[in-house]
Amino acid sequence: MAATLITPDQCADSIMTVVPAVTRFLRASIRSHGKPHLSLSQLRVLYFLQRRSQSSLSAVADYLDVTRPTMSAMVDRLVQRGLVHRSPDPSERRRIILSLTPEGTATMERVYRATQQTVADRLEALSAAQLNQISAGLALLSTLFEEPHVSALGQAHGDTE
Amino acid sequence: MAATLITPDQCADSIMTVVPAVTRFLRASIRSHGKPHLSLSQLRVLYFLQRRSQSSLSAVADYLDVTRPTMSAMVDRLVQRGLVHRSPDPSERRRIILSLTPEGTATMERVYRATQQTVADRLEALSAAQLNQISAGLALLSTLFEEPHVSALGQAHGDTE
DNA sequence: GTTAGATAGTTAGGTGAGCTAATAGTTAGC
DNA sequence: GCTAACTATTAGCTCACCTAACTATCTAAC
After folding, report:
1. Is the CB of B73 under 7 A from strand C?
2. Which of A20, A123, B78, B132 has its CA 20 to 30 A from that of A115?
3. Which residues of chain A neighbour B45 with C-beta distances below 8 Å?
4. Nearest C-alpha neighbor of B45 from the set A20, A10, A14, A26
5. What tens digit of pLDDT does each residue of B105-132 get?
6. What CATH number corresponds to the domain at position B81?
7. Do residue B10 and residue A124 have CB atoms under 8 angstroms apart?
8. Residues 93-132 of A near strand D (Cβ < 7 Å)?
9. What are A56-76's pLDDT values in tens digits?
10. Which residues form the domain of A54?
11. pLDDT tens digit string along B23-70?
12. In sequence order, what are the residues at sequence separation of 6 or more whose Cβ sits closer than 8 angstroms to the Cβ of residue B159?
């Protein structure tokens, strides 16, 4: 409708404005739903671990694009809360294997679904065409800005094809 | 075309995946361009102050959707770096007036433009139609997830020259 | 006018995400 | 066997967030 000609600069401008706003919304949603408060980053770690269980710390760090020390500290907190389990890898003894505890799985699913629902509630107001418009835009952004190896997360929402 | 039927849940899923990825990209871009390193949040504060100069601390906090103590600490850092100036409001003596210093304006514009350019570079690969698709999606997200008062930032991308 | 309530900003104290640099242990290459 | 590369951790830092509590100021009500 208002789709006049857009320059990359203007589009970049929009990205820089909208993305932080949505980030704040996501953070607030997660906070309001988690009884043991999860951060957005923690949720992403748990979400990743659910589908790539037995990952090494480095693998998770690479996927989420943070340094290993950062991930090490994050895992510390998650282990301390009983959501993640660290175990040694027998074949590679410098590596650790990360996996979700049952509680970690439950917490992750609960918070993820609740957050997803909060976001979906906002989207309810839209028409199917508008939903598709958002979805198409996000898909493009995904190809442009996601780290290549992160695409597994991006693909993961499409098992209903 | 590839726009099959999308459920709100799937769309929410995409949002939760893509938005953090783009956030990371923005953060990395800003970091790489600022000589005095600015954070994404700091850039947003400076960006806002440029077009709403003489704002009070609360006004900025409300716009960026953070608490006053958080904004107070952020302003502390920006003042310490000589980018922002705190002055008393003569008519309301409990209020402070925030404004960019010349250096603050210069730093903001440099970092903002460089970041915008980095983002725009990625967007160059797209067709006009794809650009419009992203733009349209972002516009919708903006109406859904931005705080009402923040819309001024969203409108603001067309005033250079 | 004084007193009660709201409002603006700060301070104190905490959690968590992020970084770099340096370290210990492990594996692999030569 | 020695070195080089890799995995994870520790230490030390900055910054973005939060809540609770405090000061100062303004407003309104009595």
Report:
1. yes
2. B132
3. none
4. A20
5. 999 999 999 999 999 999 998 999 999 9
6. 1.10.10.10
7. no
8. 94-96
9. 999 999 999 999 999 999 999
10. 34-147
11. 999 999 998 876 778 999 999 999 999 999 999 999 999 999 999 999
12. B51
